[in-house]
Amino acid sequence: MVTLEQFIADRQQEFERATGAFSxxxxxxxxxxxxxxxxxxxxxxxxFLGELGLTNIQGESVQKLDDMANRLxxxxxxxxxxxxxxASEEEEHIIQANPAGKYVVLLDPxxxxxxxxxxxxxxxxxxxxxxxxQVGTPCEEADFLQGGRKQVAAxxxxxxxxxxxxxxxxxxxHGFTLEPAAGEFLLTYPSVQMPSESSYYSxxxxxxxxxxxGLQKYVQDLHQRNRTAAKPQSLRYVGSLVADxxxxxxxxxxxxxxxxxxxxxxxxxxxxxxxxxxxxTEQAGGKATDGIRSLLDVEPKKIHQRTPLFLGPASEINxxxxxxxxxxxxxxx
Length: 333
Ligand code: AHG
Ligand code: MN
Ligand code: MN
Description:
- The chain is 32% helix and 24% strand.
- By secondary structure, the chain is of the alpha+beta class.
- The protein has two domains: 4-192, Fructose-1,6-Bisphosphatase, subunit A, domain 1 (Fructose-1,6-Bisphosphatase, Chain A, domain 1, 2-Layer Sandwich), CATH 3.30.540; 200-326, D-Maltodextrin-Binding Protein, domain 2 (3-Layer(aba) Sandwich), CATH 3.40.190.
């Protein structure tokens, strides 16, 4: 049995081994995950469900547990001496932590908020960058706007039938399962590879009529292929990115959240959701785009920027790019 802390400590290639910065940051994220997991399991009994009565910077209604997870992670991480600052999907502005810290952390503290009240899995997404502003001074927004390729670690926690923590530092994807009796994350997925064949697809098609014509044709093509495929692809979608992505990571499948005519930038956030999931996808052998461009190469302009998001096996993601750029005519049977 290898604990998360032991796994990190044993890996020479992780950044800042000498100071232990990474293990201390990830240990605090793991501690936050254990506490959030505990609160989520008690939520309906302890009256933590429902809306807080406020609207966040995303224009979305804040759930009590969104607020709880946000405050918990921010309080915990802002006390970590290695963290200079934080940005959260729930906060309008960046948050200063310790000027002596060399890193900044970005969070989607609770992902899948519409599922909290109905007992469906939710998650937390995180991403870590080395700051570019001078150590010893307050961090700056530029530290958070370096682009997806500059991430030094990224991962997610899934609060499901068990609590899982998956992360990458650019050496593959590693997964841990919380052993509640020991209160430890134990290594259960040493090296995760996304199957190259797509067995599932996950997208909300309620705005299909508003999607790019090429993408509508791709969906037609998907259903068309299913008619004759020996193993048709199946739909799986709960509306928690972490849960939908996690299934596709392990089983092989496409997740997409495209833009529409009215909202070309889509719904999901580039920094808190897009970049971390894109890097995990690439590290597991899959492909991540905004439909056409590699998502990690999309330039960030503001911290709450949204992006269309396409994650999955390369074959499926390439097919989508083909439909979007070539405007192929799909033959219907
Ligand atoms: P969040 O709860 O952090 O705001 O994210 C919700 C996101 C994401 O988890 C999911 O993929 C998507 O919203 C679902 O949106 P739809 O309900 O439009 O399908
Ligand atoms: Mn989210
Ligand atoms: Mn969220």
